[in-house]
Amino acid sequence: LCFPQKLWNMVESDQFQSIWWSEGGKCVAIYEELFQEEVLGRVGPLQVFATQSMKSFLRQLNLYGFTKMKKQFQRSASLPEFLAEEAAASANKQILYYYNPNFNREYPHLLEKCKRRSAPKRRAPCAPEMDERHPSRSPDG
């Protein structure tokens, strides 16, 4: 299976507690600390992805067109409620939200449009300039 298919199966599975659908099935929510242990920590035949690095996993998400979303919190006017919300918000900092328009629980057929973007091509180093004292010879002599 390719990366988006593996990700889809994980989100749909009850086997993993560190990843789930968010925003009504439009976003993927990842509890980073638990995900590193539960998914990326697997080795051998139980390994899900070809990496054990969170940084590499997030790079794969980006290559497949996922964008990181910020969770918006409504702020209260009263100080005690505001402080409680701040505590909840800081606990949520370990939860990452990623969105891809072709990765939606309600439209599984769009998954086939989740293609890996090609990496930007590196330019070849500049060709050495011709030495005008030694022009290339033509077949005429």
From TrEMBL:
Stored InterPro entries: HSF_DNA-bd, WH-like_DNA-bd_sf, WH_DNA-bd_sf
Pfam hit, one: HSF_DNA-bind
GO CC terms of this entry: nucleus
SMART domains: HSF (SM00415)
Annotated spans, Disordered: 116-141
Biased composition range(s): Basic and acidic residues: 130-141
Family in the record: Belongs to the HSF family.
UniProt subcellular location: Nucleus
Domain HSF-type DNA-binding: 3-117
Organism of origin: Podiceps cristatus (Great crested grebe)
Annotated protein name in UniProt: Heat shock transcription factor, Y-linked
Main location: nucleus
Keywords recorded for this protein, A-Z: DNA-binding, Nucleus, Stress response, Transcription, Transcription regulation
Signal peptide: none
Molecular function terms from GO: DNA-binding transcription factor activity; sequence-specific DNA binding
